[in-house]
Amino acid sequence: MFEGRVALVTGGTRGIGAAITEMLALSGASVAAGYNRGGESAEKFAGAMREKGAKVSIHQGRVDQAEDCNRVVKEVMDGFGRIDYLVNNAGITVDKTVRKMTIDDWRQVLDVNLSGSFQMTKAVLEHMIERGSGRIVNISSVIGETGNIGQANYAASKAGLFGFSKSLALEMAQKGITVNCVAPGFIATEMVSAIPEAALAKVVEKIPQRRLGRPDEVARVVCFLLEDESSYITGAVYDVNGGLDM
To answer: Each residue of 218-229: pLDDT tens digit?
Structure first.
């Protein structure tokens, strides 16, 4: 399906990002998976993918540092010669109520989740414009739509991706580049497993399907948006949340 194509997935060695990397790679794409920490586990993940015959490279860098974004993009370009798809998936949480949240707590989350997507996009955009084609998918969150106690910084960063994606989609609409958002709900990842058991049980009770989502269920939607046949979809937000925000 994606033979001959190259994807760059930030936060692409864990959780939802790993599921996206795996699905793309096993569908024929060459995937450059970005990571910040956990080099040993990233190497292990890439090795497992290669054993399955997938083309996966890993690239360490911080999306909140513009120089790292530019360096990683250069590494991918040097290695593969092109970038067809960018999936801005890297994200963090620093959860506190607004009364307890420091300006550093606020900035740290906004810098990674929102500014990081902007900086990675800037790093690949001219290449995509020059080639006259490209797909950009930003991974937002249901929390950006609903808000959540103790997550004002996270909610603001993820809501910001909606406006960023729609504005960029308008700017790129006549340049062969689509820009869309996928907004997962509560997915069974390390990030969600860190939620206390009693609190997580209450969350599941609010989900109409009464279960957590799986990373591969998010990856399927991302891959759909990257397909050639999805060229008329841009500026859209796809919810993958079991009906949580209905």
So the answer is: 999 999 999 999
Distance CA 93, CA 91 (A): 7
Burial call 48-64: b when 16+ CB within 10 Å, e when fewer: ebeeeebebbbbebbbb
Helix (H) or strand (E) holding 44: helix 39-51
User: Computed from CA positions of residues 83, 128, 162, 63, in that sequence, does the dihedral angle turn out positive or negative?
Assistant: positive
Domain covering 6-240: architecture: 3-Layer(aba) Sandwich (3.40)
Residue 139 β-bridge partners: 182
Q: Using an 8 Å Cβ cutoff, are 64 and 116 in contact?
A: yes
Closest CA to 90 of 67, 133, 70, 119: 119
pLDDT at 191 over 90: no
Residue 6 · residue 83 · CB < 8 Å: yes
pLDDT at position 197 is: 85
Q: What is the pTM of this model?
A: 0.96
Looking only at the bridges linking them, the beta strands covering 134-139 and 85-88 are parallel
Asked if 209 and 242 count as a contact pair (C-beta separation under 8 A), the reply is yes
Give catalytic residue positions. 154
Write out the two tokens for 145. 């739509």
Q: How confident is the model at residue 30 (pLDDT cuts 50, 70, 90)?
A: very high
pLDDT by residue (tens digit) across 47-102?
999 999 999 999 999 999 999 999 999 999 999 999 999 999 999 999 999 999 99
C-alpha span between 144 and 103 (Å, rounded): 19
- E strand residue ranges, the chain: 6-9, 30-35, 55-60, 85-88, 134-139, 177-184, 237-240
